[in-house]
């Protein structure tokens, strides 16, 4: 009998991978499912982006292996995007590495910097992949609390009381997923100072900056951030390109080179046409962001109405692609609550528990459902 690697004992199948099978089964039985659980944009990229891809696939160079570092013009577009939107200067030849989605960057960074037994600071609640990748590479997850009473930001006094001697890496993500907390440059300055003090690599996962957020920020805006920090970003949410798998990691040349040494052994470059589409997307004017956010604002208003109809208290300060809401008093289990709604009303909502123990008592709605469907969900109650 062929046995699996021991590392598989440290992880389970991704929650949405298994739960969506159940959701699809209900849909196949004819149930009128409304999926508000997963943050997969339901809209298309701009026409200019699609046209750029259509033109690119006719290029005689489109179908061969591509550079591990991406097209020079793609890296230049990414550098220009950071300069124009965050006033951050990045050298496109050495401080940016295109990725096949920022999620793969979590694995590449972990493989590049973590040894077995190293410790990793992971937000609770936070993106589950931070934990699973940490376990897969043989490092140890050390969770730090994020709580509503502290606006879902780290408690630095509590962090300083931890034994940080084995901590090599710290994950953050602002705007925060799943809560939508904005973060601030003041917070980023504190985090950079903390990372420098304890010689920790700080990584900001930043795919939600431009969704319902009037003040997009980058960790790399902080003076000296490049000395200890990397930032992941993605075109998935900002430009409705989730399935295209285009992201980037930015930071100083030495850190980026370490990630490249891993990545270049994992794939053979991003498809040429997708790179050309990404270049066009990164040129988008303010009108693109405005039109997307106008639509998301309308969806958020209706989704908040749905949450309040369920007796939940919405975290109103949240930005990004989700609505985070506290369950009604007396409800003991977020997962039981959403399962009841799924099987009685055929609406799928994500339970806060999948993001960590501090997510118990909360649920998360994705704004990836058309207004009429959100209204239908409201009407079912």
Automatic annotation (TrEMBL):
Residue ranges of every copy of the Aminotransferase class I/classII large domain listed in the record: 32-381
EC code(s) of this entry: 2.6.1.-
PROSITE patterns, per the entry: AA_TRANSFER_CLASS_1
SUPFAM superfamilies: PLP-dependent transferases
GO molecular function, one term: transaminase activity
One Pfam family matching this protein: Aminotran_1_2
Names of the cofactor(s): pyridoxal 5'-phosphate
Top EC group: transferase
UniProtKB keywords: Aminotransferase, Transferase
Family the entry assigns: Belongs to the class-I pyridoxal-phosphate-dependent aminotransferase family.
Protein name: Aminotransferase
Organism name: Flavobacterium plantiphilum
Lineage: Bacteria, Pseudomonadati, Bacteroidota, Flavobacteriia, Flavobacteriales
């Amino acid at each position: 009998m062929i046995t699996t690697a021991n590392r598989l004992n440290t992880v389970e199948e991704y929650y949405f991978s298994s739960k969506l099978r159940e959701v699809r089964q209900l849909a196949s039985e004819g149930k009128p499912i409304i999926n508000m659980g997963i943050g997969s944009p339901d809209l298309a990229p701009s026409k200019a982006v699609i046209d750029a891809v259509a033109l690119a696939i006719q290029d005689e160079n489109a179908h061969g292996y591509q550079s591990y570092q991406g097209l020079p013009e793609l890296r230049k577009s990414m550098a220009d995007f950071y300069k124009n939107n965050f006033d951050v200067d990045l050298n496109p030849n050495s401080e940016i590495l295109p990725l096949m989605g920022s999620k793969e960057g979590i694995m590449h960074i972990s493989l590049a910097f973590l040894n077995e037994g190293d410790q990793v600071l992971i937000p609770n609640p936070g993106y589950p992949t931070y934990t699973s990748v940490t376990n897969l590479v043989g490092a140890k997850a050390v969770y730090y609390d994020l709580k509503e009473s502290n606006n879902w930001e780290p408690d630095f006094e509590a962090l300083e009381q931890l034994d940080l001697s084995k901590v090599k890496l710290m994950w953050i993500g602002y705007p925060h997923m799943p809560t939508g907390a904005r973060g601030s440059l003041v917070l980023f300055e504190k985090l950079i100072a903390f990372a420098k003090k304890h010689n920790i690599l700080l990584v900001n996962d930043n795919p939600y900056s431009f969704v319902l957020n009037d003040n997009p920020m980058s960790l790399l805006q902080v003076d000296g951030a490049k000395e200890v920090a990397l930032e992941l970003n993605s075109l998935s949410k900002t430009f409705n390109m989730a399935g295209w798998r285009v992201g980037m990691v930015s930071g100083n040349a030495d850190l980026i080179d370490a990630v490249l040494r891993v990545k270049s052994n994992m794939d053979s470059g991003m498809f040429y046409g997708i790179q050309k589409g990404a270049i066009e997307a990164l040129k988008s004017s303010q009108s693109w962001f405005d039109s997307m956010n106008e639509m998301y604002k309308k969806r958020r208003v209706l989704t908040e109405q749905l949450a309040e109809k369920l007796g939940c208290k919405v975290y109103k300060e949240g930005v990004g692609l989700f609505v985070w809401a506290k369950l009604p008093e007396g409800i003991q289990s977020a997962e039981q609550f959403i399962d009841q709604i799924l099987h009685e009303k055929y609406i799928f909502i994500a339970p806060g528990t999948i993001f960590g123990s501090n997510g118990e008592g909360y649920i998360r709605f994705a704004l990836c459902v058309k207004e009429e469907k959100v209204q239908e969900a409201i009407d079912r109650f």
